[in-house]
């Protein structure tokens, strides 16, 4: 068995990408494997659902593939990057890819036409995200910077920095906030873009509770009534941590370990589940009930 590198989900399915060059599709309700997608020539480092039936994957072979998860057929391959694809993000309008070639590329849906190439990073782009409002995207790099980009102009409008010498591995840009991780640190800012004014960010907090490099951070809105997202993080210490943004200390820690530390490579979070994948080849589905931790 090979290490599982990435995961994504929707209301019915999970998808995992692995070092063995395949993507597996699982039923969320019972964990049954229902499809294996084969076609990449190297390990699959990022997967995202485009719809209930379409999935996009990015791999070390520098290709991006779009799949019908029900038939298992690859319906399109995107060739533009010159290095491994480390990260993907999708909205209703765009797909965003980050690569070893130091660029991020915007693809316009549904035809997946190349819309823009975002240049400026001086090292690999490990993390990308598109915000809910579909006016901003974020790229996180081994050059220790996060760049915020306007989707209307495709220009960089803000640069944020790591406060240590660690690579920035993951970024989440959602609900008016941005969170990014480097080493054992997480930085969280509120993002505001007034009309006809430069982008303004306000630092909310910096945390460093993890004991190993953080591989994945995700901002999630836990109910329709919430006006502020919560944060979930995971990494090489095998721990999953949950924060609300009003407290610098985490509200709860999930321990996925037994006797040995299992490094977590990626997480998928919705209002009911946290799903982790790591170097033990397992997909772990945790019951996510954060309300009781905040009381």
UniProtKB/TrEMBL annotation:
Q: What InterPro entries does the annotation carry?
A: WD40/YVTN_repeat-like_dom_sf (IPR015943), WD40_PAC1 (IPR020472), WD40_repeat_CS (IPR019775), WD40_repeat_dom_sf (IPR036322), WD40_rpt (IPR001680)
Kindly state which keywords UniProt assigns to this record, in alphabetical order. Cytoplasm, Repeat, WD repeat
Residue windows of the WD repeats:
37-77, 118-159
Q: Which GO terms describe its cellular component?
A: cytoplasm; nucleus
Q: Name one GO biological process term.
A: ubiquitin recycling
| Listed GO MF terms | ubiquitin binding
Q: What protein name does the entry list?
A: Uncharacterized protein
């Amino acid at each position: 068995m090979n290490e599982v590198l990435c995961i994504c989900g929707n209301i019915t399915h999970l998808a995992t990408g692995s070092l063995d060059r395949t993507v597996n599709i699982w039923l969320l309700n019972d964990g049954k494997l229902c499809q294996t997608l084969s076609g990449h020539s190297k390990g699959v480092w990022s997967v995202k659902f485009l719809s209930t039936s379409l999935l996009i994957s990015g791999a070390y072979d520098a290709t991006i593939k779009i799949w019908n998860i029900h038939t298992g057929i690859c319906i399109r391959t995107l060739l533009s990057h010159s290095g491994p694809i480390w990260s993907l993000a999708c909205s209703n309008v765009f797909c965003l890819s980050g690569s070893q070639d130091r660029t991020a590329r915007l693809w316009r849906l549904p035809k997946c036409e190349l819309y823009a190439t975002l240049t400026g990073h001086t090292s690999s782009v490990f993390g990308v995200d598109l915000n809910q409002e579909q006016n901003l995207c974020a790229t996180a790099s081994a050059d220790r910077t996060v760049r915020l980009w306007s989707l209307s102009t495709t220009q960089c409008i803000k640069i944020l920095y790591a406060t240590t010498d660690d690579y920035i591995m993951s970024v989440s840009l959602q609900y008016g906030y941005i969170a990014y991780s480097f080493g054992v640190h997480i930085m969280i800012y509120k993002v505001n873009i007034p009309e006809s004014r430069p982008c303004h960010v306000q630092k909310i907090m910096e945390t460093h509770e993890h004991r190993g490099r953080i591989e994945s951070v995700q901002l999630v809105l836990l109910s329709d009534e919430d006006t502020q997202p919560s944060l979930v993080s995971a990494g090489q210490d095998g721990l999953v941590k949950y924060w609300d943004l009003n407290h610098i200390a985490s509200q709860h820690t999930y321990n996925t370990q037994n006797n040995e530390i299992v490094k977590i490579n990626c997480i998928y979070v919705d209002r009911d589940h946290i799903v982790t994948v790591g170097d033990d080849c397992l997909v772990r589905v945790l019951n996510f009930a954060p309300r009781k931790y905040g009381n």
